[in-house]
Amino acid sequence: MVLLLLLSLSSINSFSSAQSDSDSLYDNFSRCFAQNNVPNDQISKIVYNRTSPSFTTVLESYIRNRRFNVSTTPKPSIIVTPFEESHVSATVLCAKKLGIQLKIRSGGHDYEGISYVSNVEFIILDVFNFRSIEVDMETETAWVGSGAMLGELYYRIWEKSKVHGFPGGVCPTVGVGGHISGGGYGNMLRKHGLTVDHLIDAKIVDATGRVLDRKSMGEDLFWAIRGGGGASFGVILAYKIKLVPVPEVVTVFRIEKINAIEAVYQYQYIADKIDNNLFIRTMLQPITRNKNMSVRATFTGMFLGDASRLMSITNSELPELGLKEGDFKEMSWIYSLLFWASFGNTTKPQVLLNRTPNSVNFLKRKSDYLKTPISKNGLESLFEKIIEVGKVGLVFNPYGGRMSEIPDSETPFPHRAGNIFKIQYSVNWDDEGEGAEKTYIEQTREMYRYMAPFVSNDPREAYLNYRDLDIGTTDNGRHSYNQGLVYGMKYFKDNFDRLVKIKTAIDPDNFFRNEQSIPVLPFRGRKVGK
Ligand SMILES: Cc1cc2nc3c(=O)[nH]c(=O)nc-3n(C[C@H](O)[C@H](O)[C@H](O)COP(=O)(O)OP(=O)(O)OC[C@H]3O[C@@H](n4cnc5c(N)ncnc54)[C@H](O)[C@@H]3O)c2cc1C
Ligand SMILES: *[C@@H]1O[C@H](CO)[C@@H](O)[C@H](O)[C@H]1NC(C)=O
Ligand SMILES: *[C@@H]1O[C@H](CO)[C@@H](O)[C@H](O)[C@H]1NC(C)=O
Ligand SMILES: *[C@@H]1O[C@H](CO)[C@@H](O)[C@H](O)[C@H]1NC(C)=O
Ligand SMILES: *[C@@H]1O[C@H](CO)[C@@H](O)[C@H](O)[C@H]1NC(C)=O
Ligand SMILES: *[C@@H]1O[C@H](CO)[C@@H](O)[C@H](O)[C@H]1NC(C)=O
Prior knowledge:
The chain has three domains: 2-126, Uridine Diphospho-n-acetylenolpyruvylglucosamine Reductase, domain 2, CATH 3.30.43; 133-245, Uridine Diphospho-n-acetylenolpyruvylglucosamine Reductase, domain 3, CATH 3.30.465; 250-327 and 361-454, Vanillyl-alcohol Oxidase, Chain A, domain 3 (3-Layer(aba) Sandwich), CATH 3.40.462. The chain is built from 17 helices and 18 strands. 33% of the residues lie in helices and 20% in strands. The chain has a seven-stranded antiparallel sheet. It has a five-stranded antiparallel sheet with strand order 5-6-10-8-9. It has helices at 2-17, 25-35, 40-46, 55-61, 85-98, 150-160, 176-181, 189-192, 214-224, 261-270, 307-317, 333-340, 376-389, 402-405, 434-451, 480-492, 496-506; strands at residues 47-49, 78-80, 101-105, 122-126, 133-136, 141-145, 164-165, 199-205, 211-212, 235-242, 244-245, 250-258, 278-289, 292-303, 329-331, 362-370, 393-398, 421-429. One 2-acetamido-2-deoxy-beta-D-glucopyranose (NAG) binds at residues 24, 26-27, 44, 49, 51-52.
């Protein structure tokens, strides 16, 4: 009796939906969308296959690393660009039903392109339509869509108030979705900590297609998406952020010094301890001058206050930099963002609304953390190494201040107290071809190996938003937990286990997965039941 009923049900089902083996993934996807109540005229507006005329444009719109814009880069079978929450739910449910890998993209700045590239067949869910920004000055908060870019967010805050800001990254085209969910930071981190230290609420679509806010998702999941990476847990639609105060006048500077070992040496002892209003980033780069190779140190400063106060601080605490009054530029916070993003000094804030960067390079990044200053001898040999390697720059971002006051367990981002600097290894290049790519990527690896004795170890810490697939990946198969431990300890230290538990509870089938996602607990480690 039951068998008969089942048989007849399944035959009705296959008859009514008229599926056939020759149906393409697109056909199956469209049918599934329709079954999830997405109207047909909307489906054709949001689902692109490879023959759609705008497929390539949509795909390339948010590629931000030319390494993944070449003919050999694997392309998605389908791109979905939802504009309603129900479309996002349908995309999740249908990708799950059809058993296809889903990649989620906001600003596309992932350094390894993992928001839009995969080695298995995949589709992209691009959230660029979710980019509304509502700033509410009464509560000093804003809801910001994950497809918004940081520049748009800063601009919308500035429209409403000249004395509010948000402590996010300094590149205006970085996407909110990846940046915040990965624990994004900017040049106010010594004063205000990270973006994730200022979140009030969020909206996310989980693996069952539910749209959740902080209340309905619960504090565990809300904790996880404050630095654990959104892509392991769901599709983030928006974050509600708390704005931070910024003074009417801030001061910036940028100075360059050649082979300035003494200045860099002294700077290391002060950068994380100086006034919390001051953030000085230093970039060490090999350059050629009069046919001699040298190391140039570029010191870029952000001070939440005026130039005369800054002068007295640097005079007494960092005389080695030789900063003069003429080096300082006073301006409002929004103009300081333009300065940090290297726009010309006649550029207007409206440029922050531009969603397309001026240029896109081939690039590779890696990261490290420095816990003790490097000795003078160490710096001397480091400078030699920078010249020998040839093209890799090292960017030192000072910590301390607010960063060291917040416990590591407060958010998934664990690299707070005890770190003087986060170091980014950085190489950009313009020459096409695999030869160049191999050379320059190998240069970053060589520099990374060289730095081992100076930096954190056991684990050798790394920053999730500086995505680096060299430090370990998972195939999301049987060994995913052990594979995950390798990169997971580097990115999350002791927070990794909590992320795994939350992941296992919210997405036990590991639908939201990628090359470096949070794995689910091995089956034997889970509670049996249900
Ligand atoms: C030029 C440049 C400058 C940068 N400057 C800074 C900086 O100052 N400070 C800093 O902290 N970082 C900086 N970064 C790193 C940046 O924060 C990360 O690359 C960040 O992840 C980018 O977010 P995105 O949305 O643009 O990237 P995407 O490539 O779209 O996404 C990155 C990751 O997040 C996932 N993801 C994206 N959107 C969602 C979503 N809606 N829901 C769930 N998962 C999602 C993706 O699947 C992917 O795994 C910079 C990067 C670049 C290229
Ligand atoms: C589409 O669905 C049909 C019926 O389930 C299946 O036979 C076919 O292989 C699917 N096509 C693709 C490309 O997945
Ligand atoms: C691709 O999409 C178009 C609609 O944009 C559709 O007509 C066509 O059948 C699709 N191609 C495949 C192979 O599914
Ligand atoms: C990607 O490549 C295409 C074709 O070569 C080019 O037109 C486009 O500008 C490139 N985009 C990026 C972001 O590199
Ligand atoms: C370059 O190197 C030569 C030889 O070591 C030296 O004489 C010269 O002063 C150097 N030039 C600069 C600009 O440092
Ligand atoms: C802008 O920069 C130019 C060239 O660097 C300089 O000459 C000019 O004084 C600057 N203007 C302002 C307002 O700072």
